[in-house]
Amino acid sequence: MKVPFNKPYLPLSSLRYMVRSAFSGTIAGNGKFTERCHTFFEDEFGFRKVLLTTSCTDALEMAALLTEIRPGDEVILPSFAFMSNANAFLLRGARLVFADTMERFPLIDPDQIEQLITPATRVIMAVHYSGLACDMERITEIAGRHNLLVVEDAAHAVEAYYNDEPLGSLGHLGTFSFHETKNITCGEGGMLAVNHTPFMGRAEHIWEKGTNRAAFQRGEVEAYRWIDTGSSFLPSDALAALLYTQLRRLRRIQRRRKWIWWEYHERLAPLEEKGWLQRPVIPEHATVNGSMFYITLKDQATRDNLLHFLNDRGIRAVTHYFPLHSSPYFAGKHDGRELPNTDRFSATLLRLPFYYRLKTKKIAFIVQKIREFFES
Ligand SMILES: Cc1ncc(COP(=O)(O)O)c(C=O)c1O
Questions:
Q1: Residue 240 in contact with ligand 1 by CB distance below 6 A
Q2: What pLDDT is attached to residue 24?
Q3: Contact (Cβ atoms closer than 8 angstroms) between residue 35 and residue 207
Q4: What are the distances in angstroms from CA 300 to CA 55, 172, 296, 370?
Q5: Residue 370 needs a FRET pair 20 to 30 A away by CA distance; which of 34, 143, 244, 283 works?
Q6: H or E element that contains 371
Q7: Which atom of ligand 1 is found nearest the CA of 55?
Q8: Phi, psi of 7, deg, nearest 5
Q9: Going by CA atoms, what residue is nearest to atom 12 of ligand 1?
Q10: How far apart are CA 231 and CA 63, in angstroms?
Q11: In ligand 1, which atom is closest to the CA atom of 182?
Q12: Which residue, 64, 63, 52, 57, is CA-closest to 28?
């Protein structure tokens, strides 16, 4: 039996919306479907302003522009993160200060943030890995005390909450991904949630090449002009149409994905009891949004051997996140601090296949193969 790591969920109705978009006369950005997606997120989750982007990477780059990072400003971010978290700010000349994760969760450690703050610190980045909420109460409290901006990377965190509050809505800015591996997808896509009122107008200008074209499209001005710096961050409306199909099915998608997550969780419980592996630990304030399922093993050799064992049997499990602080690009630039929790998560974490149409039979097969690995 072959089990791919991911299979994007593309219902047939996606084509209907895409065709409708193609014949509507607008397949450039900021058309009807973009507006529908924006309205959906604002109504469903109470985001005050959202802008679709071509990727989460782009949303992070918009965040770096909005926070007006200048060369020498410091950004505190987890090393257990994606390179876009780092690149977006590095491109603006920031000094990256990598923090470790907590011992039990692959999430940035607020104690470390506190220790790493200097007069040059401007931004704290919280990455809600696998949709698990970082400790936002402490992070926003620290940020408030030091007058810092908070960017939440909610790339994995659609329909995930910190207590009752949607992730992406708690920092000054929140970024989302609709890449094909995410809960909802349009192939490549993303979104910026703008929660800080002073950023709202400017965000729209940066989104549209530094112009007031969005206001022009709403009929508020006669012509659009170059009024700020910016780039082209908006996706084609055909992609927004694809995304909208999934938003209409968000409840169903989420129900299914959460069910898969708990199915893995339950079936792997006896293996955890034997001490073979650990299932994700969920912080008290966090929820499960079915973005991915990972296990952690006792050491790297066990993880790598299990990875090869599963891959050889047609099960595409994968590792996740090499630490950024010791990456080939950054190792020489890091300040030398050890980040042991990051190293441990990176060395021992294994992601299991996860997609909407993953059937019980396949989950049972994967768990059975993991059991065979430990019994062999
Ligand atoms: C935490 C995090 N942020 C950002 C990204 C980049 O997302 P995108 O591929 O939409 O640019 C990823 C990629 O998966 C990610 O894991």
A1: no
A2: 86
A3: no
A4: 32, 37, 9, 16
A5: 283
A6: helix 360-375
A7: 10
A8: -140, 110
A9: 82
A10: 12
A11: 14
A12: 52
End-to-end C-alpha distance for the chain, whole angstroms:
20
Nearest to 132 by CA among 107, 152, 103, 101: 107
Pairwise CA distance, residues 322 & 280, whole Å:
18
3-state secondary structure of 97: strand
57 lines ligand 1 (CB under 6 A): yes
Angle CA 313–314–317, to nearest 5:
100
pLDDT (tens digit per residue) in 152-188: 999 999 999 999 999 999 999 999 999 999 999 999 9
Q: How many CA atoms lie within 13 A of 123 on its CB side?
A: 34
Looking at residue 21, its pLDDT comes to 86
pLDDT tens per residue, range 231-245: 999 999 999 999 999
What is the residue type of 8? Answer: P
What share of the chain in percent tops pLDDT 90?
A: 95
Neighbours of 93 (CB within 10 A): 12
Global pTM reads: 0.98
Q: Quick check: 16 pLDDT over 90?
A: no
- Nearest-10 crossing angle of helices 250-267, 360-375: 30
261 lines ligand 1 (CB under 6 A): no
Rounded CA-CA distance 268/255 in Å is 20
